[in-house]
């Protein structure tokens, strides 16, 4: 049970802490790839799963350890699912500097007068035992909602202030940190990945 290490193909400290809490029950220690001097992998693909797989394989190849990566973004129904993998840089195609606030501004401008405001936040997690693992574990989390006319709420980041979740009657930015994390696309993907790892990689882990 001891000594299990899993490289997280991300250098986000917040993401590491959030995931470590969940995966600790498997006796797994998560290590950020930056701690192993692993550079970030290119993300040339057009789907979340391809980018996450590329990042996980890259980290596994350079570390010699199992690795896990995620790719996530906003999929807007009226835009055919875009911005998708380009979510973080969405506003730059409209001449704005990259920032959360400008992303929200650009999205609201592009949706002006649009009746269909359906959207989903999507997260895909991929884990591999090695760079050549023929059976990667794949887990997705999805939260469907509506894009509001104006930002509402002070919490969260990214598109949280305009992502209205009908089941809560609030935007993600109005929810507490704990409630959001428990119900976010990333939280749902992480729980699904935890179940897959428990079943396939670590069946001896305590329940």
Automatic annotation (TrEMBL):
Subunit structure: Homodimer.
Family of the protein in this entry: Belongs to the HAM1 NTPase family.
Gene3D superfamilies xrefs: 3.90.950.10
Species of the source: Malikia granosa
Active site: 71
Cofactor note (record): Binds 1 Mg(2+) ion per subunit.
Database matches in InterPro entries: dITP/XTP_pyrophosphatase, ITPase-like_fam, RdgB/HAM1
Keywords: Hydrolase, Magnesium, Metal-binding, Nucleotide metabolism, Nucleotide-binding
Name this polypeptide is given: dITP/XTP pyrophosphatase
Co-factor(s): Mg(2+)
Main enzyme class: hydrolase
Pfam families linked to this entry: Ham1p_like (PF01725)
